[in-house]
Give the backbone structure.
Amino acid sequence: MNAPLVETKTLGIERPFRFESGRTLKRIDIAYETYGELNGKRDNAILIEHALSGDAHAAFYHEGDQKPGWWDSMIGPGKAFDTDRYFVICSNVLGGCRGTTGPASLDPATKRPYGLTFPPVSIRDMVEAQRVLLKHLGVERLKTVAGGSMGGMQALQLFCDYPSRSDSFICIASAMKHSAQQIAFNEVGRRAIMADPRWNDGNYDDDVSPEGGLSVARMIGHITYISERMMQEKFGRQRKGIGTKTVFRPSFEVEHYLDYQGIAFVKRFDANSYLYITDAADNFDLMASISSKGRFRGQNRERGMNIGDMRAKKGLVISFSSDWLYPSSQSREIVRLFTAMNVQVSYTEIETEHGHDAFLTDCGKPSQIIRGFLASLG
Amino acid sequence: MNAPLVETKTLGIERPFRFESGRTLKRIDIAYETYGELNGKRDNAILIEHALSGDAHAAFYHEGDQKPGWWDSMIGPGKAFDTDRYFVICSNVLGGCRGTTGPASLDPATKRPYGLTFPPVSIRDMVEAQRVLLKHLGVERLKTVAGGSMGGMQALQLFCDYPSRSDSFICIASAMKHSAQQIAFNEVGRRAIMADPRWNDGNYDDDVSPEGGLSVARMIGHITYISERMMQEKFGRQRKGIGTKTVFRPSFEVEHYLDYQGIAFVKRFDANSYLYITDAADNFDLMASISSKGRFRGQNRERGMNIGDMRAKKGLVISFSSDWLYPSSQSREIVRLFTAMNVQVSYTEIETEHGHDAFLTDCGKPSQIIRGFLASLG
């Protein structure tokens, strides 16, 4: 069988989009991909939510590419999110830099990138943009909404804001709100970007961008994404290219690895987007958000949660034993909250050495569990 | 009783100092302080080794200062390192920037700071500089050599290189060699400095130094120095000054804390020193170092280890339960090594929430243990 191909499409929304902050943009684009087909009853749609550095390209191949989308091990014919059965959708988040409107997009009024004039983005704003996309695709109700890390936050937000719109949620390696340490790691990444003079208060061109700062931010991230033990097994104190070592250039294997990750990232990511998206994750607080629902009623009468709505709902929460960035204790908090809300929640902590990255790199057991969970939805 | 005063003194060594790399400097300065008096038998001296950002000012007050030295809770009359009984010495490490010669010192040949022309520094080089100081002070034999974190590395190195020169060692929250994760955190700090264009390959002036990069390096360090739980208890998701929040400026308390730590650090520390000293710690490998002793015999016939020498020796190893940067497993490795070398090693893991910083901030239990250990030396 040939590898299935996909293209990223763009939905242009030619009417004002209102952010949670109250600010509006006159128009936005949403980049998205779909896999599989929406059935006649329109009841087989699944929304996939990406994490900090992900994008709309969750599965299949782009023409000519050697590598598939970031969750191709989970999405496809016969896979956990089985595209022979489900219509799977993934879009780039609002504030991102991979096709959906974000701070690197051109402001139609100035023909210059928005930069820091872009409105602050919240997890709820991301979900609201996805709602517009779902409507465009003719999807009124989701079988499930699923994501890992910041994708899990979006899944929880959508599920709580629109309980009548999704039968279930799948939340992997995520949290209802960031701890001080999680905020701290993100803040240091932001500081690394802002400390780079090329950042220039967010006004930079492609040819002089804060690459140094952004790569440092990504390096910090990568340390937190894998377990201490896996890093030790993978790299230990091995060295590479000592012969050519100049002072303070990478010498240990782990230094080369981080260096490579930093350089690869700046080629595909925008520094201002990094600021906006990490800020959205740090400011996410599910409990505060759903208890302040009254605030949003004026904007959208449908939004709002009713515990009665939750009785027939299901949730799946997965954490990883060696994930020290989003420890299992945070997943257990999610389980407790939704159990109290009468949602039938299944929870598994998977034994793995892959750390937080397991949601991307160790998909065997999660696949089995998700397959069973989706089957249980009927 | 008035607070005891101390001054930092400087020993100028007007003869070539040879580094482990084989390179030499024509002269070096060593900044040091002493507390208490050397007795007639000259057998009551204790050498204190400082960590990454420490200096010679370990205890007592500088005239006019509000704060004492960094280990004042441990060193003083009646304290663990009792200056009524012991002659306590602390010096700034070679490669440092607090009085001892380092990359920020002026190269006599060029009248400009050494910058990256400074020779690479090893933990052994630091110890060799201390040896010159001890000789100057008339100290032939130490009661003990003690330090936390990188200070513990120096203590182990001195104890192994000169077993006839110290009755014992005290090694707190340290390691025989850095793990991949420890190297990774240091490397990201170095990258943050080097990514700052003001670093300029190490050639910068005081008025345009890589402050942004150095402060980011320090912020990363501070996350790793305290436990996740303590950070949560101390800061949680509390906010400060929201009213005045401009986009991406610190809003959460933990952001303000890290910001403050970063700014305070750049006022007293040199960016190139940070590169050299973290490089020394990353390259430290006690086992490799002591098994390659033959290499150094030509330089110093006295150096070298003999397991027979170790029988009457004692060691004290302390780790902290919540220290995730230097986990207890690394301290247990030290215990195993020295036990195999016939040293009588005591080991305690202290329950604390202070994380790695406990060696500086939670000195109650360590004080008791050290007091007992020193008493056992007779």
Q: What stands out?
A: Chain A has two domains: 9-177+284-376, 183-277. Residues 253-268 of chain A form the longest helix (16 residues). The longest strand of chain A covers residues 28-35.
